[in-house]
Structures are given as C-alpha cells and as structure tokens.
Amino acid sequence: MAAPTPLRRLAVALLLASAPAGAVTPVAAVDVIPAEQGGERLPEATVTAVVGDVDGDGVRELIRLGPLADDETHVGVEVISADDAGQLTRHGMVPVRRLAGVEEQTEGQAVPDDRGMVAARIDEPARLLVWRVRGEERVLVTAIGTQDNPRACCLTIGEVGLDASRQTAITERVMISESASFIRAADLDADGTDELVVVEPPTQTAPGTTPVYVLRWVGGRFIRIEGSTRIDPADTAGPLLMPLGDSDGVPGEEIGLLAGAQSLGGSVLARVSLAADGSLRIGYAGMPFTGLLYAVATTEGGRLAVGTDNGASALLAWPADEREAVIARESSRRGEPVAVLGRESSARVLVFLNNAVDQLNEELVGVGITRTSAAVDVLSGTGLVAYDGPVPGGIAGAEAVVFHGNLLPALPAGTASDVPIQDRPIATLAGTRPIGTFGPEGLLVALAEGFVDATRQGGQLATPAGPRPGVALTVARTSIVLSGQTDDGRLEPALTGAVLVDRGPAGPLLITREGFSARIGAPAGSRILVYEDDEAREPAIVPSSGSADVGLPARAAQSTVRLIVITPSGHGYGATWAVRVVTAPPPLETSVPAASLGFSVTIRGHTAPDASVTVDGREAEVASDGTFSAHVGAGPIPREVEIRAVDAIGNETAATVSIVAPFDYRRLPWIPIVVAFTIVAGAVLYIRAPRPSPTLSRPAGDDAVLEEIE
C-alpha cells in the first residue's frame, strides 16, 4: 500500500481528534449489551496475524497463521479480505513449507520433496511480518525447523499472496541452511524497500559473538550481507532487536541490539546499518541509562527516547561513528516513555505518569495529559487489563496509540510544538490486542483475544508457533471499536437466586443461599469471564442467540464475585458484587414496655439489617443497624402478637409476644404488692376494730354487786 499522503493524514487525524467523544450523556449501567457492539468471531485456532496488502491493490487484507484445518500438527497461512459492505471472503489456507536440515534427513526425522522442503510443524517457530517494497506493503512468512541438534535449522522465508484464482499462495524467497532467533524489517538504505536483519544464536565455536546478517532485495531476489556483533546474548537486558529510526544522521533506518555486556563496559547498544558501499556496518555505544528505547525524529535529527535513572525522560544523541550516546535533552517531568507519535515539531513522546499519559514535545516539555476511560475501572481486581500500545499499521494509515481506553492519533506534520494530541475514548480492548485495520478505507479491524505477537515488522523467531489456549481472532467494524463506552462499562444483568440488598460505597451487596446465576444479553461471540475473589473460571462464549445464563459461584461465606463480558468489538462490561451466603434464618429479639400512655403498645426489636419485619401483620421499618419498632393496638384483655423477620432470600424467624393496655398489669410485682396490701389492710382493720370498756378499780374486800340502772 502506498504511503498515505500528508493531506490524507491530516484528514484522518482531524477526523479522529474532532469526533464527539462526550456528546452522549452517560447512563448508570446497562442490563443488556448493545448488539451493534458485536463482530464476527473466527472459530479457528490462531497463532498470530497481521494486516497487509498481499495483492497490490492498495487495500489491506488480514493474514493469519495457524494450524491447518485438516492437519493440526502442521502450520498454514490464510488470507481474508473484505468488501465495501464489510463481508469477509476467506481465500483458503495453504501449508507453510521450510527447508529440511541435513541431520533430520539423515536421521529419518523428515522426508523432503525434490526441492528439499518439508511441511513446517505447529510446534516449530514461525511468524508473519510486513515488508515494504518501493513503499508498497507485502507480507512474508518465516519458519525454521527445530529437529536439528544441537542447532536449529533452517531459515525459510516465503511471500504470501493470492494466485490467479484468488486463492492463498506462498512463493519461497529465501532458503538458508542456518538458524535464526530474531528477524526485523527496516529500510536500512532509505530506498523505500525494507531489508531484513537476521540475528542467529551464537555458535559453539564462537559463543561470545552474535552472528548478524542482512537480506537485501535486489533484482527480484535477496542477497545476503554478512556481519557479527561482539555482544554476548547471555547478558541481554532487553529485546534483542529494536527499531532505532534514523539515529545516526546518515540516510536510512537502523536496528539496535541492546545488551549489558560486561566485556564492553556495561550497558551497550549495538547499531546495525548499511554503509554507503552497501556493506554491513555495526557500531557500538555505551548507554547512560538502561531500558527500552524509542526512536524520535526531531527537527534536530534522530534521537532516542529513554527513561532516566530518576524516573524522568531523556533524548539521547548518537551520531555516526561515535562510541558514546550522550544526553541531548533531559526532562524535569517524571514518567517513563511508553511510545512516540509523529515527527519533528509534531513529535510527541508519551510517558506514563500517575495512571495517565503525559505528552512531551520534541523538547521534552509537557503539552497535555490524556484522560483515562472510566470503563477501565470495571476490570479492577480481575487481572484483566485494557490494551496499552500502538495500533499496528495505524488507523486508516495514520499512526495511533491506545492507552487505557483512549486513542491518541499522531498529529499532522507541521503542527506547532505546543499543541497536544487530542485523545478520545474507544473500546477498552480488555484482554484484547489489535492486529490492525483492513478492507476498503480500513473499514474493519482485526482483534486478537489473548496474547499474540502481532509485531508487524518482525521480532523473535526462536519459540514454537503453537497456538496458546484462549487465543482467537475477531473482526469488527472500525467505527464501533473507535466508539467510547458512554455507560462506563457497568453491567447490571438480571439475577436468579440472589437478591440485591445494599448499594453502599463498597459496591452492591448480594445475599444468596448457595450460589446464583446471571442472564447475559450480549452480541454473539462475546467472552464471559467470572472471578470469585482471586480465582478465575474458564471463559464462556455467548451463543448465536445473544443470550446466556451463567452460573456464579458462592463457595465462601463472604466473597467478591466479578463478572466481565468482552464483546467481539473489544468493549468491556463488568459487574462486581460483595456476596454473602446466608443459610440460617435472621436473628430476632423483641421487647415490650411495661407501661403505655394509651390503648397501644410499642414493640421494639433487633434483627439482620437486610431483613424485612412484620409486626401483627403490618410491615415495620428496619434501620441500618437492624433495630425496628412498631405500635400495635391493645386493651385490658391480653392478646398475642406475632413478629416475623424474613431475609431477602426467604429465610424466616418468628416470635410471639403477649400485650395488654393501658398498662401491662401482668408484669407488675404481684408478690410484694400482695404483701403490701396485706399489711395495709391489717393496719386498717386494727385501727378500725372496737376496744372493750375499762374495768373500775375497788378496794379489797368490796363485795358489792353492780346493779343495772334503769
């Protein structure tokens, strides 16, 4: 594909930057995920994929590498194209073939064809990479065998395309009897065609050196340019191959090999480039800092952005033939570089700072900080993270970086150095990695579920290519992936077997007897992930009906259950609950006052805060601490009142109290009262009882008789 014109880059960047990110009012949550956030899930296992123009028509296709449909022990390549309506056409899968090693032939491990080729196995290293020829994209597939001992063999490179019948085809371009551990495409001589930089593992005869050679496309074929580095790979401190851009001021890009070689005095970077005469040139320089390097094209020339030892950023200058990289500029702002977008005055070094991205211009002066999508919060505690990193191949040809649910497109060339990149919210891409856009005008985007190495210009070629569990490709409309989640990704599905009892600051509280289930309404192909505390369950896939019932665990008395749904378009929705398992009925304590001011009695009690209470058949309000009270009618004749406490899932406790009014004479202290009444009555009777008349005294010997007086 021809490089986008400056006008088109400007139009794309302005379109992305001016999109109405906040035009829709956020809602609290969704119970059903919108169907338009779907896409097509490819059912086949996939090792990796790239997007590139394999037929030279200026429109990219999706190219995937995976096990053959009818032979899972061997690896194949498939081309998938899209039309103006977004409909996919699958052009068939063809096996990848590689050169057979001498040892595996002599030992009978492989039976080659008449050209010495055998089918590449799925457990052998293989990868795809995008290769530019005169500015137009092509796609290569590389493979090596691992049957040889003690050294793997043999590097084979084929070009992926479509034959006359529009079926996937591979044309062999390179067959080399040596091994390879890394491969990278870069335009070393600035002629618009990429060279391939190949790094081999050290040999037994020269363990302290790393063989390096360059494959240069000349006259319709590759020629090999030999070289080697003095870096011991045992001291490697970072990725063995990294793009350096034009760091030396000589036309053409360079590739770096970073290591901590003690024999060369500490942290050393080897720079691979082509000299003017076409020979391979490898220079060495000490690095003032260790860590990842990012190429920056400034108005002063090529620089390397790196994090400093004090947690800030610096730009290093490394002119040609110099043996030291020096600090050209250092920032006073803290933050480690994570990406670079644009060039010269529009270049922005993106650094991670306080859970956001700080934007530094080519002078390492801050020009703005990107926001973080609130939808990322739904992933908290799951170990599932939003995608952070570049969009391979950009968006419609323009460079772009994704960070925490935000898209940052490169600024148009010539933008003033104080203008910040305008970020916009997009799908969270949780546990998802973008492969790139393809189809007419980048209509579709390919996404990989799980980890895949989707580096377009190459990378490691030393590990088996076998598919990892849980990896799958989905294809969605680019416009949907680029739409933000106005509901912040919060999900409130319908629940069975559990009841929401509180929406406190710690989150929703559910109670259940032994577990519950959620009805998930989501686009077909969506992934459903369930976590109980730190334990994850196997993901489930929403079927074609767009609905699924998911059982949710509740094995502990109290736990945190998280439900995450990832749509095929990369939108992440989640719900988190504190779950309490309740199998016993709620506690119930009651009390009735001894006296009342009228013909009613106040019954008070205590139960579980989330229980409902009825007193004498009427509902009583339960306070947050579980206390309740209710007034019931009463009279002088005692009667029974029933109190019931029922929790949200139906567990019930009942109690009965007997009441009487205006006061409860049954609760008086009758024994002392009777004693008191007895004493009082005796005293009254004693006071009121008649007394006998007094007897007159007479002298002794007086025998007179009293006579009645008439």
Structure characterization notes:
The protein is elongated. The strands form twelve sheets. Strands 36, 37, 38, 39, 40, 41, 42 and 43 form an eight-stranded mixed sheet that branches. The chain has 710 residues and is mostly beta strands. It is 6% helix and 44% strand.
List the helices and strands and how they pair.
Blueprint: H1 6-17, E1 40-42, E2 48-52, E3 61-68, E4 71-82, E5 88-95, E6 97-99, H2 102-106, E7 117-119, E8 126-133, E9 136-143, E10 155-162, E11 168-176, E12 182-186, E13 195-199, E14 210-218, E15 221-229, E16 242-245, E17 254-259, E18 268-274, E19 280-286, E20 294-298, E21 301-307, E22 312-317, E23 326-334, E24 336-341, E25 348-353, E26 356-360, E27 366-369, E28 389-390, E29 400-403, E30 406-409, E31 424-425, E32 432-438, E33 444-449, E34 458-460, E35 472-477, H3 478-481, E36 494-504, E37 507-521, E38 527-532, E39 535-536, E40 540-541, E41 547-552, E42 558-566, E43 572-581, E44 588-591, E45 600-607, E46 612-615, E47 618-620, E48 627-633, E49 639-646, E50 652-659, H4 670-688
Parallel strand pairs: 37-43
Antiparallel strand pairs: 1-35, 2-3, 3-4, 4-5, 6-7, 8-9, 9-10, 10-11, 12-13, 12-34, 13-14, 14-15, 16-17, 17-18, 18-19, 20-21, 21-22, 22-23, 24-25, 25-26, 26-27, 28-29, 29-30, 30-31, 32-33, 33-35, 36-37, 37-41, 38-39, 38-40, 38-42, 42-43, 44-45, 45-48, 46-47, 46-49, 49-50
